[in-house]
Amino acid sequence: MPIAYKKPDYNQSLPNIVTGMEPEISSRAASTMRQPIRNIQTTIQVLNDDDSIIDTITGHVVDGTIHYSATSLTRRTGSLKMIVDPEYMPSKTSVVWFNKRFRVYQGIVDLTQYPREAINFLLGTFWVSESSLSISEQARTISLSLSDKMAQWDGLGLEEQLKIQHGTPMSDAMRGIMELIGETEFGYMYTSDADEVMPYDYKKEVGTPITDIIEDFRDMYMDFICGYNVKGQFEYRKIEMQKKDETRKAKWDFNSADNDRADLTLSFDESYNLQDVKNRIVVVGSTSTKTGYTPKGTVKITDADNKFNVDAIGMRTKVIQNNDLTNDLQCVAQARYELWKSAHFQEKVTIDVVPVYAIQPNDLITVTNPITKKTYRYMVDNISVDLGVDGLMTIDAHKMYYVGFDYGTADMPIVAAIKNGIEHLGWLSLAEQRIKDCYGISGDGKNTLIIRFVSNQVGGEQASTTAYLTSRNQTMELDIKDFEKLNLKNENGDVGRSKGDYVDRVLGHEMFHAVCNDFYGAPKTIDMPIWFKEGFAELLHGAKERYQSITGYTSNEEKKQALIERASRQLNGAWESTSEDYVSAYLIAATMYYLCGSKEELQAMFQRIEKADNVNLNFLYKALPLTGEAVQMFDKVIQTMQNIDLWKFLNDPTDPDTCSIGGNHMLNLYGRPLNAEDVFNNEEATCESLGFKIRYDE
């Protein structure tokens, strides 16, 4: 029997609408989607051209699917199969007609609150592109094929010749072509900067397809997208690339490896396509007939966190000829876009989930691999959601990697000063000598340390050293943003902050990582606990300033106990990258020195680690087997830490020594305190590096 139809009130306003365009999903919407039981209802609002609601249809959908694409001009397509009242038969007076728009909502009833209202997730604004009717004795159904408004412009051509002058901002050109065809509803429209302009006089003849022109404007600088958002508004956006600190927060975390009943992941599939990986793109434009100049743009992956960077897998170049490009900026823009694709689209994930209706194309999500238990950020490429009661959502996404920005002309004096410190003041070699004298390890001189200067963010990662499983070479990245106040004449590299931030000490810290990577090899170093790597790097130059910067405790004793407690957690695998973490790691390293009792035994410990297998298992005991069992060694370190003499030196503001391994409170290499200015004596420098070939990547 046909289902009885009760006509709802016109202009019905739905409660609790979630568009998916919000920066974050509200806690109520998130908890509703995590309910173990879902009471769902599909609502269709039929809109007139002025956005007024002329009808609302709820609960009549038999079947339906919505597809989302992040890269297609037509972002959303779908199909609906509805049980209909005769009033909905296609006709000029019907709500199902070609001048009508549909807003489709999927509602989930919030079972935790009363009255039990639905949270209504907007799935898209659609135009009817096709309709068919099927009638039987049992039910009347109408099947609709839907697409967003971009489909309205398919087949539409220019009625008059189009001319756009050279120098017109691309955002003006994009808005202009949309207004020319009658578009009045706009969402976010990126405003072009001074360089993102029409590079030549653009002319198209009558009949040129409108969608071809839209694609021309979108691709003029390659790293842009455009299309209709979930509300049916036209958007023009620049793709988030390169800088990790400028990307949005992930909208949803999928973690099927967690024993959380609220996780919505049902299946996980990861694919790799490494055949076409390129890390250097050269784009060549059209040679000018007037000047003979050929525009060119070159971009390469240098970010040490990107496994495809030029240091990790060598230079892999792709050359692209594009005669539509007429200036260097266009060539660089396409090179960046092509490089972004080669660094991102090679690793993809497909997950089937209980539908999370608020996710949109190009949203960021995190996905935890159920096998490796590692969590990565992904950008959503495609979504398919079944609107049925038992329907699933399939998400295709690509893993996010980031390409660091090179420094600019304004930073060149800082770069020159750091180079001078490395080449003439021993900012690397003095630390290497100290590592050799105290720890007994060194680089073998065969491998290259690439020094790269980037410009990311103040207060981020000041310096980092990365080793690779694919190469014995290493990369040391220095973020110029953190050296902007560098005193160019100071031999220690004073950056206007704490003496603990002197550049020679920062680079000395990094050289401990570089030497360990070279001496032990990347596979073993990666398996070492973070507290060991960071603790002995801090011990190399001393951590008194960092210790004294920790405040908020009522007494030195309270601070001491808090740091010992933190050290205990670190020995059990905790690490939060706070300043307190570095201090407590330093305290573990210092305690291990006290337990060794001499330079010879300390060096023997480093040699012992080199011979050990599976260092990620019972590392502390393998480094210092001073007790019968591994757990006893853990207790011995914590007990010894309570009573070491180091505490009184750290708490004495009149003591000039930085409490480094070479200072007068430990190995006393020079028979005097080593303060911040002479913990590394620049007058002793003889070369830029003892154990590495140094190359600057510029």
Describe this structure in words.
- This protein is an alpha+beta fold and about 700 residues long.
- About 25% of the residues lie in helices and about 25% in strands.
- The strands form five sheets. Strands 1, 2, 3, 4, 5, 6, 7, 8, 14, 15, 19, 20, 21 and 22 form a 14-stranded mixed sheet that branches. Strands 24-25-23-26 form a four-stranded mixed sheet, covered by helices on one side. Strands 10-13-12 form a three-stranded mixed sheet, covered by helices on one side.
- The protein starts with 16 loop residues before the first strand and ends with a strand.
Rg value: 31 Å
Helix content bin: 25-40%
User: Biggest β-sheet: count, sense, barrel?
Assistant: 14 strands, mixed
Termini separation comes to 76 Å
Outline: globular
**Would you tell me the structural class of the helices and strands?**
alpha+beta
- Number of DSSP-assigned strands: 26
Number of helices: 17
**How much of the residues is beta strand, in percent?**
15-25%
Which ranges are low-confidence, i.e. pLDDT below 50, for 5 or more consecutive residues? 1-11
Mean pLDDT: 85
